[in-house]
Predict the structure.
Amino acid sequence: MGLPKDLQRGSVTDASQPATLLLRNCSLVNVYSGEIYQTDVAIAGDRIASIAPPPDVEAVATLDCHGLYAVPGFVDPHMHVDTTMLWPGELARLIVPLGTTTVFVDTTNIITTGGVEAVRALLDAFRGLPLRGFISAPSYSPFEPGRETVAHELTLEDLELMLAWPECIGIGETVSSKILDEDMSYLARIQLCHSRGKRVSGHGGDLPVGDEAAIDAYAAVGISDDHCVMAPQDVDARLRRGLAMFTVETSGRNYLTTGLLEHIVAEGVPRRQLHLCIDNIAVTEIVDHGPGYLDRLVGLAMRGGIDPVDAIRMASLNTAAHFGMAGSIGSITPGRMADILLLKDLAEFPPELVIVGGEVVARSGELVVEIPAPDFPASYRHSIQLKDGIELDALAMAAPIKAGKVNVRVISVEEDDPAFNSCRISPLQVVDGVVRPDPAVDVLKICVVERYGRTGNVAVGFVQGFGLQSGAMATSVSVPSNNIVAVGTRDEDILSAIRALESIQGGYVVVHEQAVLAEVTLPIGGVMADKPYEQVVEMIRRAEAVVINTLGGKLRHPFGPLTHTVLCTLPELGMTDRGLVDVASGEFVPVIVEVAAIDQPPRS
Amino acid sequence: MTKTSRQGDDPHSAAALRQMVRVALGRAPADLLMAGCQLVNTYAEEIHDADIAIAGGRIVSVRHGSSPEAHTILDCRGLLALPGLIHPCLITDSAGGDLGSVARFLISGGITAAFGLSSSGAEQGVTTTFLETAAPTNEFLWSYYSLATANLTLQAPNPEGPSPPIRVDQDWANSKLPWVRSAAPTHNERYLATMAADLSRVSQPSQVSACAAMGVRGAVGVTTAEEAKMRLRAGMSVFLDHVGDDLLHSTLRQLMGAGLDSYHIGFGPLMMALGPARDGITSPLLDMVRIAVDAGIQPARAVQMASTTAARFYGFDRKLGSIAPGRRADILLLESLEVPLPKTVIVGGRIVRTDRQVSGGPRPE
């Protein structure tokens, strides 16, 4: 009886078996010992067989790595594939050559758009890719039952099914508000995850600031990490409670460079609970960074004074260990998957070579292996269904008066962090019993339209900050429910935009005088593209330019705010297909606050 | 050995989670409040002021001030609070006696959980895997996790051959340990069955590397810095043995001097006799902590080596090995790390030994 297959391929130092690939004389960054030293690395099949092979070890292929650092492939602890707008294959084509070889994917926006079947499909989409994908199951769908409509309402049975998948590492985006409110059905999901021995990943963004009792409660129920560590004052309380901190650096959430790095270095914060994290990033931003993904954060950490081995650990071993996977990924040590970056300099990206599972998959920033075509279930490619269609009158906002003025709540959008909107009260004209937007002062109409063929809800409100002078734009991306959000100057254009979205089955559309001038097609669940990333970037750039040049939009990147401002968990207003939500109270509030003036009809 | 479960100690209960939230937020009283501790925090690697609130056998809050009310208050002013220590590789046969008396002995030395090997298990091939059992003391729950064992026999290096072959004993291959069976990495791939004392005979880097390739993720019986470095490099957690104070001291000094990362270095004294072993010292792990501090290791890191490191190695860090909310309330009180015998030992939230004043706290109406 021979050895089990795994043992065979691992035991290259058994002289009878040659290595499949030998990296000669590389400078090994050893994240276990904390050293960098010259050695050979022998790979057998998809795993690392030895980091100290005998000098006469035989190898099928040998790479002279003199002058190159061997660094473990980077691991992103928490990200949303859908917010990149790419399907996993294109994400792999873009970020694997930059050195990220494993992503832990949150699936909240996948279940809200396509249910458990879509989550499974997303996981299956990683098959055959040079990018390892693991998922966290959603902890909610919808965020608040009764407040918004989604494609599928999460049940405990769903969670049980997903937690049984070996690629599922736990549940994600576990919010503090439901825990602090003692929401028993939510706690039952947490306990189910514990009982399966998996991680409960957090979203501490809604923890009351400076409230240590809340952080105690959050940690006490077994939340293991938080990706909402924003400022130095957030660090100590989490670290002391053993909460791993996923530190984000993206446009609008540049926490590392606006205080965290400096604090970590100055205070000597232990590095093992620190992870570099992307969370949400659009494909355009990845490309704009050079391109850059986690590699950019590693570089920033090193330049910010973090020891290179620590910085690399924050993007590899720390995360692998956090999810109980240090035995298979996150380091260049024997027995682990051979996911290796070869770098000329520790802070110089892209890597010369990227090896995943023992195979060279990228050279000098280009993927050198084939990506299979996307293969998603037809149902998930047809996620937009407007119940009974939609007509113009659904977009009108009726006023309690025939003519005059009403004061309305307006969502005021900030470009830099679009979820952090504020509530303003503005007077709007009422004509023929209908409230009119006022593009002259940048008060536009915003509509949220249920798109899963379930309720046909349409909510209407007003928004400020986009600056459109004419036309409308609409999207099927709006976390977490991902219903249709449309903003425009007049109802006819808004309606055209909504209908255009239905016909392309999701994405972004820009409409002027009822004609579609630009579109970004995201037909997978209405949130992900099936096209090469270069084309996606081009579509977005073009559509943004049309918004700015033809519609007079004043935001540099109008689509981010369009998708994020309706979020119901961050200040001050949210909006769902059922209406306007006051975030602080979690309650629906009316758009019209009061009647400001009544125009008397002219005497006849 | 009987399997026991206590009210509130069941982590699989949403009601238990809710109770923890309520206590943490001050909406319900804690069972026990350890007031005014100097908490040795093995995550933050610092010692800070904290009150430790305990409910349902688990730690609920660790903030300083504005702590929840409690049925019982333990005055901990001026004392260090350490996480219960964890023995990563207890060889129960060598300790002698039944598990109950072993537990009593270890608890008196602050060891509140152990991962154990039975050398007789090796003869049977595979014993049980991670079977949590309660020591039959009828007084408190003591965590003992029995490890799968297997015979890993490594052929001695051939001094004449240029590349000494590593052979794997068939028993090892047949042991069907979880990591051997896993073909693709999954989160379930915990670091099982890595405690091969035979590994201490492995002297060549290529051999250590080969052991790691075959799935060995931890090494016990390590005494020298050179051995430790070789194993660390191969991605193993290293558990140092204690065969002599001077050797341990110099090994630790060399490891620190070489700038090696201490995060994967822990303590695992292999041979322990019941009762006073040397010079009246009855706490084998605290003794090693004392030596580590003496060798220049930061106190919180030294405690980490005797607690958190083992818990993390076995994938139990959410459950054991630190004083953080959600963990089992296994806590020791010490006057100083120089005095390696705990005056107070709390296991699963119960005070099993103390010389401190315990008082009833304010009770709810």
User: Anything to note?
Assistant: Chain B has twelve helices and 16 strands. Residues 1-9, 119-140, 148-198 of chain B have pLDDT under 50 and may be disordered.
